[in-house]
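Notes continue from the previous slide.

Worked example: a multi-chain complex. Inputs as given:
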Amino acid sequence: MNYIVILGLVAAALTTFSSLPQVVKIIKIKETKDISLGMYVLVVAGIILWLVYGLLIGDLPLITANVVSLIFTATILGFKIKYK
Amino acid sequence: MNYIVILGLVAAALTTFSSLPQVVKIIKIKETKDISLGMYVLVVAGIILWLVYGLLIGDLPLITANVVSLIFTATILGFKIKYK
């Protein structure tokens, strides 16, 4: 693997796991008042479409990254609805 | 364009503009207490790497999407630091 591919993989790992600290924070503080519902509706809808796109073109990195992202962002959306 | 390409473009548009409602919400309420600092540090770092990756491989859609995403997410990170 050349350094450009490694750079892309690090970028993908960062953006894919970026929502994890938000999940942990909500579990601790049980508050979501300042978090935008609209943002997570758009994110979850977008990630579902990315996942369908990944499945249709058979792209494993796209499928993997979006399954992980969907777990975190759908959890945040669920918390936002629960604690609103 | 076939429907798979259109699906990918809609997915990209949704995830790219998803942070906009959060920017608008913070401008209105001037509160970021429930928002995770760690999340936005990871997101901004990840998007900068995606952008560098896009520039290195010369991928215009990747560059465009990540410039837009960077504007929104860096704004949220700035607000998080300002209102913390």
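Summary box: The helical segments of chain A are 3-17, 20-29, 37-57, 60-82. The domain at 3-82 of chain A is CATH 1.20.1280.290 (Monooxygenase).
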